[in-house]
Amino acid sequence: MDDGRRAINVNIGDLTTLGPSNTVNAGVFFNGQEDPTAKLDKCRDNIFLTDPQSDRDELISVKGKRVHGTCEWIERDAKYKSWLSGETNLLWICGGPGKGKTVLSIYLTQRLMQAHTIYYFCSSNDRKRNGASTVLRGLIWHITELCPEVADQLVELRGDVSGKRVQATLGSRETLWRIFTRIVHDPRSTVTCCVLDGLDECDEISHRWLIAKFTDLLSEPSRTGTGIASSFKLMIVSRPEVSGLARCAQIKLDPNNNELVGKDIRRFVATRVEDLATNISMSKGLRLEVEETLLERSQGTFLWVGFAMLELLKKGTALEVSEVLNALPEGLPSMYSRMLLQIHRHNRFTSLLILQCVTVSVAPLDLLELAVAIGTLESKHITQEQTIRDQIKACGAMIRIDTGTVELVHQSARDYLLRDEVDENAILEQLRVKPEEAHLQMAQACVRCIEQVENFGEPHRLRNEDKVIERYVFVARKPLDDYAIDHWADHAGRCGRLVVHLLEQSPLFGEKSSLRDKWWAEYAEYLSEPNMMAVPADIHLACYLGIVPWVQALLRDKRKPSLTSLVQRSRKLVNVCDSAGRSPLWWAICAGDVVVVQLLLQEGAQPNTHKATGNAFILACRKGHDRIVNLLLAAGTDINARGEEYGSALQAASHRGHEIVVRTLLAAGASVDTQSGFHGSALQAACSEGHESTVQLLLAAGASVNAQGGEYGNALQAACAKGHQSTVQLLLQEGAEVNAQGGLFGNALQVASYFDHEETVQLLLQTGANVNAQGGKHGNALQAASVEGHEDTVRILLAAGADVNAEGGPYMNGLQAASANNHRETVRILLAAGADVNAHSADHGNAFEAACYWRHVLVMRLLLEHGAVEQWRSNSDGQKAQEYYQRIFKGWLSDS
């Protein structure tokens, strides 16, 4: 094969003659069907981003091994023991910077390993570990690593990783959350504990969203009172600034546990001083002085002690140790100040450039990317990489190189560099990072790269929430080019008024720019929003990227016209739509940019557009931008405006499970039972995705539980299609008619059977579902299960009294449906249950003819063994099946 892969084919007889559906690709395909294990492994590969255990091992390498005796106090804490026993299911351990939180998390994950614990270590320095989607991907992968059998819950991830469905799943935190909750509720999962470290290192939107989701999950009542959902426990370890956890059980490292943490620091100091004493001859008195000084000036932070020891270990004599000891400042901020003051004056300018880039970079920079960003060049005898390494070394302990990536030593270092207060010390003020200046520097470096890119084209990367997090095929480009293509606008949007320097200098911002067109063609390929490939006009792009000064410049006439014409031009441009009917307001909402939305509304933007695809209000509700929803409502938007995919704003918000927006819309008078769109109604939209809390909100607001319409006919069918068991239970309790007819599948039992949701099938049958009800796409539930080869569901239906020979639907009966689709085991089950092997009709033929037509040789043989006779329709399908049987299959039988 040209692509270098080898396919091992196993043939039965003359398999080339028999047809491709029987080809076996070793280890992957069997009788035309993909190996289930390989399919699940592919799903797990698709969701994989980082291995939490490898991340933990890397942290141990960076921070060093835990000192014996430290962290052990936590296991004696009453609140921890209460959490461990299951009396409380959410525990928050919080502490200031440098208090040993991550080492404590590592210790606990090691102690809890036998309790089937999943864990995740967030990192502000790693784009694969600092967002809601990335956290969920890590947790889901870890669960399936411990419990491989639950990987069948990853249905949305079947297919190639570059496929649009998989891309949409990986880019949607809501979809990933549904997958996570499905797995957590799966009784086969043995996971009972989850440790989430460093949640404050995720962006604010992500950590607020995750906390809201986890608290809802852990507070929801279990309908059965059994299973993993009632015993799942979560521990969050973070700084105290994280909001939303005030009411849960808390262990505060400071100040509540200063004494216990202090004992750990004393052990840590004693061990490190002992290491120092092995290299330097020190008196007992000096050792004691070193220990006491470190303890006194550390202010209870392990990180300060680590920095201090780095300096002390560089010394070779006791006198030098004593001198450094006396010079050590008190507390972390003063330690960072000391590091900066130690930078040689000749290196300060370059060090500032490095500190600016590393502090504000949207994604970690490697050595050569950083070199390009600050303009480092190679010299005659020194490579560019060696030069940048030497320049980084001049920054001292503030910067570290981790596997080729340049990072700040700790999150607290970023906080220090970005401090707002003007420093009285001129050197420290010079080295303080001013965010707008730093982002301008990065934006200018990125734009310079884009202007020189030679091979714009198809992007080779994976996005999450419109942010590039992983490239799966690498393009041969210069350092920083890929970063620049992905992130120049992130920096440009954070420059404030300084961005005018870019607007005036780069062709990227021209009214018509071929460079911008080329950039967008690559950048837009994997945006999560559909139909984004057409190059947007400059006003639309400026609004989408959130570059406020650019938006303002476009809305105002550069020729300084009269005030009247300026207002007229602004109001005309602010509402200009693209070919899909999408206004500047729509583009700003798509990006979730509240500031730009406010600006556009002030400039006269109209929230109501005529084209359904460009309805800005429905978009805001679909994306869950609650602040923008309130702004649009205040601006007079039509709350019941119709859309195409979503029939209304309420339906869009309900489908995505945005409870805050749903509450807002209901309070503002949205019609709860409006019928239109793919989902028919808001209730059906919420049920289709299993958003139980949203379902309860809608029902409480008067939504009709049996309203007809939409793809699935009614809310019960929508919930059954995805197997949302608790939602199905809720609807039935609220009076949903279990045998209501309508929709593509006819009734709830048929749709649950088709999608193989066994528990849902059993629940419906227990509630009185008619097992032989006719109608819908597949005629009846048994045929729906048979056409997909769902063996266990077929058995359940037969045990409940399904008529094995019932007719209807696109096939004659269940046997023909299973035979036509090569489900041999299902055929065997139906025959054992009394299926008429020779049932025949003029319209559908029979099971044997169907198997012959599709060349399913093993099914043909099985049917013959059970008495199938030759009986063919006179049409072309019958003739084709007959020809295959007589010309090929009979010969194969005689040879075998």
UniProtKB/TrEMBL annotation:
- Is the keyword Repeat assigned to this protein? yes
Domain named Nephrocystin 3-like N-terminal is located at: 69-239
- Pfam families in the cross-refs: Ank, Ank_2, Ank_4, NPHP3_N, WHD_GPIID
Against SUPFAM superfamilies, the record matches this protein to: Ankyrin repeat
Stretches that traverse the bilayer: none
UniProt name for this protein: NACHT domain-containing protein
Originating species:
Elasticomyces elasticus
Q: Does the keyword Transmembrane apply?
A: no
What are the boundaries of the signal sequence? none
Keyword entries, A-Z: ANK repeat, Repeat
Report domain GPI inositol-deacylase winged helix positions.
352-423
ANK repeat spans: 580-612, 612-644, 645-677, 678-710, 711-743, 747-776, 777-809, 815-842
